[in-house]
Design brief:
With 289 residues, the chain is mainly alpha-helical. The chain has 9 helices and 2 strands. A two-stranded antiparallel sheet has the order 1-2.
């Protein structure tokens, strides 16, 4: 075969139907397995699907910061819904009693510092207003219990300074108040000074109601106010407690000193046993908690 015949033979082969030089096997040709194959018999098994990370938000790390610490909100540990409900109950009781007669929270607050107002209530107060007085005392008890619970949780590490701690503290305060009232009634009957007992009960009621009124905003600022004012609200509340305690001592001393039926020795024993000793005992219990 000449070279020209060889070239003609190749042109005929090219123009004819296509023939595969090597065996070609496509992935669609075989349905018996799920592998990827190409014409060169290259087999590739698909690997596990790769997890695509979620896109990062453009706002990530771009939160606005307060201009000053006074704009930060103080966040308390745990739910404070119970504290809000206690404050609401106090405000409701104070609002109801404020619409009463001569005995009102605002008048009681003024009577705690003004002797003339206290004498006016003592002279013109009626027994029909005793219910309003009990409601004011209940509201003041809740307010004082809330603030004392807050102090216990903030400075002494009181573990249950939540609702259970509030109920415990309030129950203790109510028990102490009832015990003190019974003690004063017994002392008034023993020493024959019921007139002084009536005056002192009115003074204690005015001081308790005034204390509850002033401690309620302190508790509200501490729990729900700006974080920068939280510490200041507690300090202000402690100042209110000290102020009313000193006022109670001054009222009691003037009441006993101006009565001729009470001697100086009785006044000294009274202050040591019923004023100073319980205070030191309470401080000792709180610090050793």
């Amino acid at each position: 075969m000449t070279a020209e015949n060889s070239h003609d033979r190749q042109r005929q082969l090219v123009g004819a139907a296509p023939h595969y030089i090597c065996h070609m096997n496509d992935s669609l040709a075989q349905q018996s397995h799920l592998t990827w194959q190409d014409t060169a018999f290259f087999v590739e098994t698909p690997g596990p699907p790769t997890m695509v990370d979620a896109p990062v938000s453009i706002f990530e790390g771009h939160l606005l910061t307060p201009l000053s610490k006074g704009m930060e909100v103080h966040s308390s540990h745990g739910s404070m819904a119970w504290a809000f409900m206690v404050m609401t109950a106090c405000l409701f009781l104070y609002a109801v009693t404020q619409r009463g007669g001569e005995v009102r929270p605002s008048v009681m607050l003024r009577a705690a510092f003004d002797r003339a107002t206290a004498n006016h209530l003592l002279r013109y107060g009626s027994e029909s207003e005793r219910v309003l007085t009990l409601l004011m005392l209940l509201a003041s008890l809740l307010s004082i219990g809330l603030f004392v619970t807050t102090l216990a949780g903030r400075f002494t590490g009181f573990a249950t300074a939540g609702l259970s701690g509030f109920l415990t503290v309030t129950s203790v305060l109510a028990g102490l108040g009832l015990a003190v009232h019974i003690g004063y009634v017994l002392m008034g009957n023993i020493f024959g000074i019921p007139h002084l007992l009536r005056v002192y009960e009115l003074d204690r009621t005015a001081i308790t109601v005034g204390m509850g009124l002033l401690l309620l905003p302190c508790s509200a600022i501490h729990h729900f106010g700006p974080g920068s004012l939280s510490q200041a609200a507690l300090v202000l509340g402690i100042t209110v407690l000290i102020l009313f305690y000193i006022k109670d001592l001054q009222r009691t001393l003037m009441l006993l000193w101006n009565d001729t039926a009470v001697s100086a020795a009785h006044i000294f024993y009274y202050f040591c046993a019923l004023k100073i000793l319980p205070l030191f005992a309470a401080i000792r219990i709180v610090t050793a908690w």
